[in-house]
Amino acid sequence: MTCATKPCATAPYATGQQYLKDGVLPHMWCPGCGIGVMLRACLRSFEELGYTNQDTVVVTGIGCTGKLDDYLVTHALHTTHGRALACATGIKAAKDDLHVVVFMGDGDSVTIGGNHFVHAARRNMDLTAIVINNFNFGMTGGQFSGTTFNGAITQTSAYGNPERQLDICALAEVAGANFVARSTPWHVDDLTALIGEALSRKGFSLVEVLSPCPTHFGSNNKMKKGTEMLAWLQEKTVPVDVWRTMSPEARTGVFPIGRLVDRNEPDFNARYREVGARATGN
User: Fold this and answer.
1) Would you tell me the crossing angle of helices 188-200 and 35-49 to the nearest 10 degrees?
2) Which part of the chain is the Thiamine pyrophosphate enzyme TPP-binding domain (predicted)?
3) 29 is a domain residue
4) Any bridge partners for residue 180, and if so which?
């Protein structure tokens, strides 16, 4: 394991190349999938913030996003489905000096892992959760998940999903997260900036990356190509400042993107130290 260095002063921009294993590219994700775009944005932010291979822990679960740690030269923990945040909570509680970054899909984070998501945000654990929301369980065949929107066609909803979708960012906000943001692979510069901001914040920070699965969800919902998915993301997203001026009717089917929540509440470890000081009289 090698130690990452800060970007060279003469470099035009960060690349994050030092966090990747040799010979791992091209990656395994399908053409049009946004995981690769998200990973590049994250690794560039690692470099810009001075993260090293040895002080960074990447935690993943199951599914397409769960393969991500196979590509990285950092500490890594590959967990069972829905348990990534539970394991990350334990890591951060025990080793407060580590940068803990959790990569999840919508199934891992809020469908199977919804309980852990709520309590990690409620505790305001000092970690960063990056969620690729591809609107289905992509690796297991394209079943609908908790974020699949009502009426969508999937392998398990051939005539339309009867359920309402879960808003990941709204859930994080009401549970108590310090920082919540949303972006897409189409808005790659904004995505990189928001991930960098999330990584630099204390407390629970979330970046949701909207990226419909092109193989399953997209093929069933008029987005059979990656370019069609990107066009859909451009059409269906608006900056949050604009979204807040829109009527409830106009907001239907539209996602606000950008920085959605920004507060500065003490994180779990800071509160825990306060309890320890009271207990010991120090």
Assistant:
1) 50
2) 71-209
3) no
4) 206, 261
Burial of residue 31 (number of CB atoms within 10 Å: 0-12, 13-18, 19+): exposed
Q: How far apart are CA 55 and CA 75, in angstroms?
A: 8
pTM check: above 0.90:
yes
What's the average model confidence in pLDDT over 98-125?
95
Report which secondary-structure segment, H or E, holds 121: helix 114-123
**275 contacts: CB under 8 Å, gap ≥ 6:** none
Is 13 among the domain residues?
A: no
Question: Confidence class of residue 218 from pLDDT cuts 50, 70 and 90?
Answer: confident
Give percent of the chain with pLDDT exceeding 90: 74
- The answer to whether residue 27 is domain-embedded is no
Cis amide bond preceding 12, omega within 30: no
For the chain, what is the domain count?
Answer: 1
Which structural domain range is residue 141 located in? 34-280
CATH code of residue 82? 3.40.50.970
pLDDT at 139: 79
Write down the pLDDT at residue 13.
Answer: 59
CB-CB contact of 185 with 191 (8 Å): yes
**Residue 133: beta bridge partners?**
210
pLDDT reported for residue 196: 97
